[in-house]
Design goal:
Structural class: alpha/beta
Helix content: 25-40%
Number of strands: 16
Strand content: 15-25%
Radius of gyration: 26 Å
Largest sheet: 6 strands, antiparallel
Length: 338
């Protein structure tokens, strides 16, 4: 909290608009549907023990308790303890919470932000990451990378277990997502629940992108469901390969008519890409030829004519810069309106 002496309150807003104010006491408090939860929230998609708040008089912290559907603060997934501040917006299943200090409760507070509507200029950017618990570290790294690229990554932080509550959370998470990314590994293809998630995505008409961590052979039933999907190699989570995954997500959404690209910016970016590549190739060729020429004229002493070599080197680097700017403009233009 910004004001350590102020007593924090949690304002819980149900989907029907009703609000409940909960005074937060010092110590730890569990939020969930369970009867023994310190703060009971009887709303769909809230787990029995969904999240935990702790208040020590100076800091208010929140963590997700492997709820399945997850918890977000100001639109970002909670992966570890998060330090809350006055006015923070929390999402717990279909419930929304707002943190207030006692000094701010008496003042009019704005309604919590609503989800962007599905439509041009306001589409969701949620990406569901299906993975095996053994690949948790890779899944978290991918989630962080996607968040930095502007995607809202839905990452199940729970150990994969059976049960209707878990199944309902997964179903809801897939339904609310625009794309499902399946982390393909020897671990994930052997899991029965992976097949269930892929089947659910197919039934809900949510596109699937297999992101391959390691080359494996799909089981027959999974192969049948993924036979018309194009896989993306992201082994070692290298930046270049992850960039191809980012492009693949946009490609999928474009094919579904879920993007509204900035056509002018797109064309300018494409032109810059072409120019950059031409300059890049010309600079490379000029650098090599000028280096050979200098070496020949100086009997192997390249330093006798360094200027031409450096000029072509700068041309080469400039071409790479122009191409990079063009690529960034194309990506930005294509992702507009998602």
């Amino acid at each position: 909290m910004d004001i350590p002496s102020a007593t924090p309150r949690l304002v819980v807003r149900a989907p029907d608009g009703t609000e409940t104010i909960v005074e937060l006491r010092p110590g730890a408090q569990v939020l969930g549907r369970a009867e023994d939860a310190d703060i009971q929230i009887h709303i769909d998609d809230v787990a029995d023990r969904h999240a935990e708040l702790t208040w020590d008089g100076a800091h208010l912290l929140l963590r997700d308790l492997k709820s399945g559907i997850g918890t977000t603060v100001n639109g970002r997934a909670v992966l570890d303890w998060v330090d809350l501040r006055d006015g923070d917006d929390i999402r717990i299943g279909l419930a929304r919470g707002r943190i207030e200090s006692s000094s701010s409760v008496s003042q009019p507070t704005p309604a919590p932000p609503t989800d962007p509507p599905i439509g041009a200029g306001g589409r969701s950017r949620r990406v569901f990451i299906s993975h095996a618990s053994e690949d948790k570290r890779s899944a978290r790294a991918l989630s962080t990378w996607l968040e930095r690229r502007g995607w809202d990554a839905w990452l199940d932080e729970a150990d994969i277990k059976g049960g209707s509550a878990w199944a309902a959370s997964i179903q809801s998470g897939i339904k609310q997502s625009d794309v499902v990314i399946l982390l393909v590994s020897s671990n994930s293809v052997a899991k029965g629940w992976v097949l269930d998630e892929v089947t659910a995505a197919r039934n809900l008409r949510v596109p699937i992108i297999p992101a391959v961590l390691e080359p494996v052979r799909y089981p027959d039933d999974l192969q049948f469901l993924l036979q018309r999907t194009q896989a993306v190699d992201i082994s070692a989570l290298e930046p270049g390969r992850l960039a191809r995954l980012d492009t693949a997500i946009i490609d999928v959404l474009e094919r579904q008519g879920k993007t509204n690209p900035d056509r002018v910016k797109l064309r300018i970016g494409q032109v810059l890409q072409v120019i950059g590549v031409i300059v890049l190739i010309g600079g490379f060729v000029g650098f090599i030829l000028s280096g050979l020429d200098a070496a020949t004229n100086a009997g192997g002493d390249v330093s006798s004519d360094p200027m031409r070599v450096f000029v072509w080197l700068f041309v080469f680097l400039g071409g790479g810069l122009i191409a990079g700017v063009g690529s960034a403009m194309v990506r930005s233009a294509r992702s507009r309106g998602i």
